[in-house]
Write a structure and sequence with these properties.
The chain is of the alpha+beta class and about 150 residues long. About 25% of the residues lie in helices and about 50% in strands. The protein has a seven-stranded antiparallel sheet.
Length: about 150
Amino acid sequence: MAEHTSSSITIEAAPADVMGVIADFARYPEWTGEVKEAEVLSTDDQGRAEQVRLVLDAGAIKDDHVLAYTWTGENEVSWSLVKSQMLRSLDGTYALTPVAGGERTEVTYRLAVDVKIPLLGMIKRKAEKVIIDRALAGLKKRVESAPQA
């Protein structure tokens, strides 16, 4: 990934529970705020999403785009842009690290976004940071409030 922004948060749940929420795209509109619609277009042989269409409304940025997902083991998922109205590129990763014997999870979110409209690098990084922080806070709230299996 080229220049990117990243941040981490610790969630009071096992990595499998956290990844379960990350992989449940149909429920993104319930906890992400910016995602208004999510539709899995294709899945791999393990039933994990390969391509997902997302409709976003993040105030100034409204977009309908498709992302391709790559699953690395049980604790990492990366994505890249397939098509978009407003974005030139979007590359991201969720990496999960077990903490405290696997009862907690450190989630690191890396993101690099390039929009079709010109933005100063500093403004772009700040926007990436806001997106990451909101996503991590939403993920933490969603995972920690969900009943554990």
